[in-house]
Design brief:
Elements lengths: L3 E3 H4 L9 H10 L4 E3 L7 E4 L5 H11 L2 H4 L2 H15 L21 E7 L3 E2 L4 E2 L5 E8 H5 L8 E7 L12 E5 L10 E7 L2 E10 L4 E5 L8 E3 L8 E10 L5
Parallel strand pairs: 5-8
Antiparallel strand pairs: 1-3, 2-3, 4-7, 6-11, 8-9, 9-14, 10-11, 10-14, 11-12, 12-13
Length: 247
Amino acid sequence: MKEWFLTSELLDHEGMPNSRQAIAKKAKRNNWLKRKAQGEGRSLEYHISNLHEDIQKSLIVKYGEDFEIKDISSVITQLKENAAKYGDDEKPLSNVSKEILLDEISNWCTLPVYDVHAAAGAGTLIQSEYQIGTFQIPCVLLHEYGLNSENSSIIFVDGDSMEPTLSHKDKLLVDIQEYFHPVSNGVYVIRIDDAVYVKRLHWDIENGLYNIISDNSKYAPFKIDHNNGRNFKIIGKVITIIMKPVL
């Protein structure tokens, strides 16, 4: 007996929602057993055990063999046993722990976007350090990092010295809370003299200096004394890249 059904195969059965989108929403809401359909692109198909018994009977009558139609109750019992056996093995393999639809998000935070192109290469002079726009992001994502719209901003990357960690034109979510020396090792947006950089900072405990490191080995590391070295300032800590294409 056929056990897995596409939404298109369920539409014409009494008691089912009247659109594919409605079926998909019901399936998600009720955590239906599902799997990726073979040869159907991104389509999903759902196990018959998810459905009301009247719909199961209707499907058995339409797709079952004559001997199955004559003993529908036994077939339904067997299909339920099969469903318990499938478990998660029949679900699409995924490392996604949770899905959130954008239209289900009601609380959005508006972040300032600054015209401070943090250089991942030789440095970019700050000729116009002011807000050029805003960027909206679900507040729940900021809260995961202990941030809110008051202590975070968006800054762009120039250059390739932080490849492969950061790429040219990446948009960075930056924690702009005040940091006290010495900061923990990590990637930061910093100012040295009149230029802004994004670099990895490693604290040299023995000498009381910061190692300024580029992840791209083509660029040599250097040291700086935060007490008296070249107007050094930590602007913020890089938290994550915003909406980077997956290649």
